[in-house]
Amino acid sequence: MTExxxxxxxxxxxxxxxxxxQTILQTLRQxxxxxxxxxxxxxxxxxxxxxxxxxxxxxxxxxxxxxFYPTPSAIEAFQAQLTPYKTSKGAIQFPIDQPLxxxxxxxxxxxxxxxxxxx
Length: 119
Fold this sequence. Notes:
The protein has a 6-stranded antiparallel beta sheet with strand order 1-2-3-4-6-5. The longest helix is centred in the N-terminal third of the chain and has 17 residues, at 19-35. It has 119 residues and is of the alpha+beta class. The chain has helices spanning 10-15, 19-35, 72-77, 102-117, and strands at residues 40-44, 47-51, 55-61, 65-69, 86-87, 92-95. It is built from 4 helices and 6 strands; from the N terminus they run ααββββαββα.
C-alpha cells in the first residue's frame, strides 16, 4: 500500500495486502460485523472504520502487525487482557504471525457498541 492510495471501500483496502494478510483482515472484519451488524462500514483516516453514533473501531494492516483502534476507553477497560500486546492510548498491535484473539476483539467491539448505544 502506498501513502497516496485512496480507498472508497473496505474491499479495496483489503485487496492491497498479500493473501495471508487479506485472510486475517477479512476474519477481523467478519468478527466486528458479527457483534455490530448495525454499524456502518466505511473508510475513515484511510482505514476500515465501523461507525454508529460515532466511530466504534478502526483497523489497519501493517507489515508486522494488525492495528486495532477501539478508542482509549476500550484500551483502559481491557488493559488486563491486553498485556500480551503492544498498546498505546488508543491502539492495539496484534502480531501478524500470531492468531487474532477473536474473543477479546469481539468483547472490545461489544463494549464499544454498548458505549455507542448509550449516547
